[in-house]
Amino acid sequence: MMDFAIFWDWLSFAVRWLHVITGIAWIGSSFYFVALDLGLRQRPGLPAGAFGEEWQVHGGGFYHIQKYLVAPAEMPEHLTWFKWESYATWLSGFAMLCVVYYAGADLFLIDPNVLPMSVPVGILLSLATIGVGWVVYDLLCRSPLGKSDTGLMLVLYGVLVFIAWGLTHLFTGRAAFLHLGAITATIMSANVFMVIIPNQKIVVADLIAGRKPDPKYGKIAKQRSLHNNYLTLPVLFLMLSNHYPLAFATQFNWVIASLVFIIGVLIRHYFNSIHARKGNPTWTWLGAAVPFVIIIWLSTAPKVLTGEPKASAAAEVYIASAHFPAVRDTVLGRCSMCHTQEPVYEGIYHAPKGVMLDTDASIAEHAREIYLQAGRSHAMPPANVTQISDKERALLVAWFEGAGK
Question: What is the pTM of this model?
């Protein structure tokens, strides 16, 4: 049990790291091509079919780039496809979902106070929400509404708000934010896998066959790429939201998530306008600051109390341990001055990461984290400010490793 918990924690770290690396690669290339596309300039003498060009300098060298709206007259010998960054990001993100939220469903995915369910049901519901999110989005894009970029994006925003509200009534607040990010990221990656790349392959096949490519494929891909562009920043926040309990663990978390989309879109609009040389719309920063202030206010709203939550079946094993009374005294004495509803430690105003360790149920639910953070390692308390002893750390290890035996 000890070796498995340590291995699983390192596996979680490795998957997170991989997800960050692939995410940087995807978002970096996406941001670059959006800026490049918006900065293209037209001039007399461009090759037939070329829409615009741009000169760039980087790393001591000059680059001359030209864009073809449909395709060049002939298929180039060397053609680089930008797709694996997207696929690897989604695959590593799904792996992280499995390692953290499915393997730790009792702790991170399911909240009996929100919606009691078994672990298999919770996992199936998780997979269903991700799949249904893409299907609804794709149907809207292919509907007559898809002909209006503005109208489509307004409707899509309304759908995302509804999804945010619905997820907070299915899962823990942390999992709800993660799933909203996963649904959005799935939409973005599926746009690449199921629309953008297939359309580009059709164009390439037409070129090879000597046919003139249909410009509609490029137009469709362009719309999906535009959506990906504006969804990027909200997804980044949602995927990192587990570090911000004031966002996911408050009463109005779904409203906060909805406002994050507005902030992200406004910031992207600013940079898109700059890159397109359409002025300097500084008003977007004020527009982003207003919902951010609202988010701060919403995060301070008192959560409606529903009584002390009951421990899950998995947590009951730790409560039943003979070591638990001593462990409870240790945790209450060394940890609960910060990890409680109203922390008393100077400078701490909210429980770090929203973790409460002031009841039997909450201590048992976080047994694995206590074991890894304060038993097997000295990460907690920070700088050992509460002077937890080696004997107490050994007690935490014995409690976790001996539970259920």
Answer: 0.76
Contacts 24+ apart (CB under 8 A), 337-342: 337/386, 338/381
Helix residue spans in 212-359 (DSSP H): 215-240, 245-248, 253-275, 283-299, 313-319, 324-334
Longest alpha-carbon distance in the chain = 83
Say how far apart CA 241 and CA 175 lie, in whole Å.
10
In the numeric block, which tokens belong to residue 50?
């070329």
**Cis link prior to 309 (omega < 30° from 0)?**
no
Give the lowest-confidence range in 141-150, 260-269, 284-293, 313-322. Answer: 313-322
- Cα–Cα distance between 296 and 255 in angstroms, integer? 11
Which amino acid type is present at position 257?
A
Is residue 56 classed as helix, strand or coil in its secondary structure?
strand
The pLDDT score that the predictor gives to residue 404 is 67
Nearest-angstrom CA–CA distance, 111 and 248: 13
Mean pLDDT, residues 295-318: 68
| The predicted structure's pLDDT at residue 165 | 95
| Helix-then-strand count for the chain, H and E | 15, 2
Would residue 69 be called left, alpha or beta, if left means φ above 0 and alpha means ψ between -120 and 50 degrees?
A: alpha
Establish how many alpha carbons lie within 13 A of residue 218's alpha carbon, considering only the half-sphere containing its beta carbon: 13
How far is it, in rounded angstroms, from Cα 195 to Cα 24?
22
Distance CA 383, CA 209 (A): 68
41, 52 Cβ separation under 8 angstroms: yes
Q: pLDDT of 159-178, one tens digit each?
A: 999 999 999 999 988 899 99
H-state helical runs in 74-148? 84-96, 119-142
Of residues 302 and 360, more confidently modeled: 360
How far apart CA 173 and CA 220 sit, in angstroms, is 35
Q: How many CB atoms lie within 10 A of CB 215?
A: 12
Residue 40 has pLDDT above 80, yes or no: yes
pLDDT for residue 307: 46
Q: If DSSP states are collapsed to H, E and C, what string results for 311-329? A: CCHHHHHHHCCCCHHHHHH
- Other C-beta atoms within 10 Å of 229: how many? 21
| Residue 204 pLDDT grade (very low, low, confident, very high; cuts 50, 70, 90) | confident
Q: For residue 228, give the nearest of 265, 197, 189, 188 by alpha carbon.
A: 188
Which residues touch 82 (CB under 8 Å, ≥6 apart)?
29, 33
